[in-house]
Amino acid sequence: MRHENIHITTDIDINASKETVWKALTDIKSWQDWASLVHSCRGNVEKDGELTLRFINPQGGSYAFKRTVFLYDEGNAFGWTGDAFAGMKDFHVFELESIDNQRTRFIQSDGLHGADVPGIKQLEQAMLKGYEIFNQELKNFIEDPDSNQLFTNHQ
């Protein structure tokens, strides 16, 4: 059996401090308030934390999965892993790089490894589009004064 892997990396620069971006990113319970493809998220963003995530499929319906936080570097990065589908394993990482005191590069990467899946290239393209939407919505949420006020009050 041939094994196909998906490797996706996308990034966006956000006009906010690394601390502000980290605070918004790790408040996963609020993702559904600003991310259009997120239905709900529960759990603890901490090393070995368990997460339950439900995302909206743009083609209809939604899908849920459980993940374990395998990477946690306070203020810098976190990532989850778990079984995906068709024997594939998922490794999803969110990273922050400080550009300067008020600008942060948000990097989102994902790797699916382990099986030959028909239509994997279409899946990869759909995932990339979803991640780019998430990135832009995170940026908008943090940079918009009205959203930022909501975020400040949400904590």
TrEMBL record:
InterPro entries assigned: Polyketide_cyclase/dehydratase, START-like_dom_sf
Gene3D superfamilies: 3.30.530.20
Superkingdom of this protein's organism: Bacteria
UniProt cross-references to SUPFAM superfamilies, sorted A to Z: Bet v1-like
Pfam families given in the database record: Polyketide_cyc2
Alphabetized PANTHER family for the sequence: CHROMOSOME 9, WHOLE GENOME SHOTGUN SEQUENCE, SRPBCC DOMAIN-CONTAINING PROTEIN
UniProt name for this protein: Polyketide cyclase
Organism: Prolixibacter bellariivorans
